[in-house]
């Protein structure tokens, strides 16, 4: 198998991480778009959610990640035991994650499920691909919130659909590639067709935001249900 070489250099992110909740065991944050979740091997990619959070909460660790361009809710564990307990919830799929997104075009159906296995292909890196034979199972639900037209500077109307996306699994790029599979890529998605339609080329960011997170507190055992409104 060919070796994967990551040449991506993240531009500086000047937006702050917003802390929404903290206790002795975990921290809930709102990640800005344009910030890596984890520092890369390249020293030019040192800045990340983890790099910033350990300055404030020594010993903390990531339970899950969001893509570089995705904004929104993340839970950070403050010690290894909490990390293990939360990771178990994620792996057992008892955590509910809801994302807000803008999709290119108008979806025909008001709701549905995309069930399409996703595979890594070093030859296509960093893209993932739909592959029924070699891919890992992946399911995503979607619900239409509204269909509308965005007026561009030249007066053209760009059809968009605002949706809620509910991933049942947690594969890399899952929501982005599943929306492409629907024929309606996420606006601003440079990897899966979200900047190909006329008028979408200069979209300032990936229009994907982790807006809700539901899980059980590892110590208190109460349900934590947190939401953060989409910035777009």
From TrEMBL:
SUPFAM superfamilies: Pseudouridine synthase (SSF55120). Pfam families: PseudoU_synth_2. The keyword Isomerase applies. GO terms for molecular function: isomerase activity. Residues 25-181 form the Pseudouridine synthase RsuA/RluA-like domain. InterPro entries: PsdUridine_synth_cat_dom_sf, PsdUridine_synth_RluA-like_CS, PsdUridine_synth_RsuA/RluA, RluA_PseudoU_synthase. This is RluA family pseudouridine synthase. It comes from Yersinia proxima.
